[in-house]
Amino acid sequence: MTRDAAAEHSALVRDHLMSQIKAAGGWLSFERFMDLALYAPGLGYYSGGAQKLGRDGDFTTAPEVSPLFGACVAVQCAEVLGNLGTGSVLEIGAGSGRMAADILTRLETHAQLPERYWILEISADLRRRQREYLEKRLPHLLDRVCWLDRPPEEPFEGLILANEVLDALPVVRFRWHANAVEELGVAILENEFAWAARPADAAMTAICHELAAASRAWDDGGGWDDGGGGDNRGGWDDGYVSEYCARVAAWTQAVTQSLRRGAVLWFDYGLPRAQYYLSERHEGTLACHFRHRRSDDPFANVGLQDITAWVDFTRVAEASREADFELAGFTTQAHFLAGLHIDQEMRLAAGGDENQFARLANQGRQLMLPGEMGERFKAMAWLRGLDMPLSGFTLLDLRHSL
Questions:
Q1: Is 383 exposed, middle or buried (0-12, 13-18, 19+ CB in 10 A)?
Q2: Cα separation of 16 and 268, whole Å?
Q3: What whole-number distance in Å separates Cα of residue 90 and Cα of residue 370?
Q4: Most buried residue among 10, 60, 325, 387 by CB atoms closer than 10 A?
């Protein structure tokens, strides 16, 4: 997308959002604003034609960093498919298509190719890019790949994969005061988007008190108190701002309900609830990404920038029970990859080429170091109808932190 085309597209998105705010009486919930900015048909960020991922996009994901990520995920997939005897894979939001290609490549060497590799992708532009990429890399396997507008209707066995999908679900923004909770929405001030607050409803107020109580339970040293109750504000200062994703349970159930037997693997940046809502995180986790620059302004570059929030993995764990899954694992990305022997994958991919091994080692460090992606990103597993250990979750079990 040229600079002029990008500016024109952003102006169209801006006009659409302005009209929605006016139609709503001058105030639009931030959840709705984020939904429209990202997903409005033909206008939202994920509908536009600009490249999103990689060096020429706005952000980089683990599969874009290195094929080692997809190779390790494939090893975990092979364990599950081997236990089932057969099955299919559903990837939700496949980005550039790199992870799909890396997984299929490695599963082929395992002689464990899925019956079908479905890609649930709502963006026509991303579908086109994914098809072109897979056709170039794996033309002989393209007949196994199928693009979907919605989850499969018929029950299936296998795996569901979602890498950096949960962080893009629209969130409610709230502000805490000593005697009240406000919901932050979007209004128009001097023909510009502006934050505007209104009293939160009873349901959102109750949720905020639960979140505050969870943060209070986590003491300054990173442990739990005795749960004795008391002041329910969790140490939050007056004016503390954060976000809450109300859609997690309904959305995760909708995309996983057709899995009869198998595993769901979630990968994303986030924290258990008590750490997510610590008092020092007083501006929340909302972040925008535009041409590899991070900001906290969702009103800039509308339609051209990604808008995300960290994932409350406690809420995802709760959603597993609500959707009738077993919570089978929760760990850091580093420990997930180590449990699947990323070092062996590195040597296998290098094939004896020392220069290639050095490049892969640098990529591996980016995936695993605490200061890079290793601890900020987490992996979570749900199981249904299976009783088996998952190698990616054997080295560090963080389920107790949820």
A1: buried
A2: 30
A3: 29
A4: 325
Q: Which residues contact 225 (CB under 8 A, 6 or more apart)?
A: 216, 217, 219
What's the per-residue H, E or C state across the chain?
Answer: CCHHHHHHHHHHHHHHHHHHHHHCCCCEEHHHHHHHHHHCCCCCCCCCCCCCECCCCCECCHHHHCHHHHHHHHHHHHHHHHHHCCCEEEEECCCCCHHHHHHHHHHHHCCCCCCCEEEECCCHHHHHHHHHHHHHHCHHHHHHEEEECCCCCCCEEEEEEEECCHHHCCCEEEEEECCEEEEEEEEEECCEEEEEEEECCHHHHHHHHHHHHHHHCECCCCCECCCCCCCCCCCCCCCEEEEECCCHHHHHHHHHCCEEEEEEEEEEEEECHHHHCCCCCCCCCCEEEECCEEECCCCCCCCCCEEECCEEHHHHHHHHHHCCCEEEEEEEHHHHHHHCCHHHHHHHHHCCCHHHHHHHHHHHHHHHCCCCCCCCEEEEEEEECCCCCCHHHCCCCCHHHC
Nearest to 8, CA basis, from 41, 49, 38:
49
Nearest to 272, CA basis, from 316, 240, 221, 232: 316
Both structure tokens of 82: 């081997």
Largest CA distance in the chain: 65
The structure's pTM equals 0.93
pLDDT tens by residue, the chain, 402 residues: 677 788 898 999 999 999 999 999 999 999 999 999 999 998 999 876 555 555 655 567 999 999 999 999 999 999 999 999 999 999 999 999 999 999 999 999 999 999 999 999 988 889 999 999 999 999 999 999 999 999 999 999 999 999 999 999 999 999 999 899 999 999 999 999 999 999 999 999 999 999 999 888 774 445 543 333 334 444 899 999 999 999 999 999 999 999 999 999 999 999 999 999 999 999 999 999 987 688 899 999 998 999 999 999 999 999 999 999 999 999 999 999 999 999 999 999 999 999 999 999 999 999 999 999 999 999 999 999 999 999 999 999 999 999
